[in-house]
């Protein structure tokens, strides 16, 4: 039986008593988490080996723990395993990417991507066992009509970060693929106009011969300012 709250509330509240760790244990856990996340890389070379449905479910459950504006959780994850649908996504994504790479008016953008050696070919979308597309709910739809959502981009971005973390924790790899524009995903995946595509996640195990660019991460003194 839940103990009554010492404060009056108009809505249900429950006690929150997380474990308070000794400082040394907390720092150790923080270091372990950093080292784990620092080993994560975005992958473009995938194995076709199957990934269990339960892994996708766990990753989305992890995403669902994200904080969100007014706790509206304005995200939908669509998991695609069907080869025909995956191929449709690949063809549409490659068409958009081809147009992007052929644009002559964005040389700086192309230059920034050059170190990644990416191009319009997205053959991994046919190879991976799963494509998961995160959709942002621009507004909710209830029996009473539209429900305004707050801080949608921030909320969905945090959820996607936890989703990526969960995949990495299970030994899986992914890539944040954002072809522009992405409206074709709404049609292919039969999503309502209240949602917009946010990120495409190809998901699988890295290929046996997988390679990634030799990059370094931003140093702490550039990412953190003390005041």
TrEMBL record:
GO molecular function, one term: oxidoreductase activity
InterPro entries from the UniProt entry: Nitroreductase, Nitroreductase-like, Nitroreductase/BluB
Residues covered by the Nitroreductase domain: 38-205
Alphabetized SUPFAM superfamilies for the sequence: FMN-dependent nitroreductase-like
Keywords: Flavoprotein, FMN, Oxidoreductase
PANTHER family reported for this sequence: IODOTYROSINE DEIODINASE 1, NADPH NITROREDUCTASE
Record's protein name: Nitroreductase
Provenance organism: Saccharopolyspora shandongensis
């Amino acid at each position: 039986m839940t103990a009554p709250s010492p404060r009056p509330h108009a809505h249900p509240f429950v006690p929150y008593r997380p474990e308070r760790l000794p400082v040394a244990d907390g720092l150790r856990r923080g270091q372990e988490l950093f080292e784990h996340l620092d080993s994560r890389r975005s992958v473009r070379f995938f194995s076709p080996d199957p990934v269990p449905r339960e892994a996708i479910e766990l990753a989305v459950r992890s995403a669902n723990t994200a904080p969100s504006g007014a706790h509206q959780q304005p995200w939908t994850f669509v998991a695609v395993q069907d080869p025909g649908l995956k191929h449709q996504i690949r063809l549409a994504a490659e068409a958009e990417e081809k147009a992007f790479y052929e644009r002559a008016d964005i040389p700086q953008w192309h230059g920034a991507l050059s170190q990644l050696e990416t191009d319009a070919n997205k053959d991994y979308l046919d190879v991976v066992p799963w494509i998961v597309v995160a959709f942002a709910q621009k507004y909710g739809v209830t029996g009473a009509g539209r429900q305004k959502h707050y801080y949608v981009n921030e909320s969905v971005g945090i959820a996607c970060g936890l989703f990526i973390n969960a995949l990495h924790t299970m030994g899986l790899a992914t890539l944040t693929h954002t072809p522009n524009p992405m409206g074709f995903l709404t049609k292919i995946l039969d999503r309502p106009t209240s949602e917009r595509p946010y990120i495409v996640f190809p998901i699988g195990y890295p290929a046996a011969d997988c390679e990634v660019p030799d990059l370094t991460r931003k140093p702490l003194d550039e990412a953190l300012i003390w005041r």
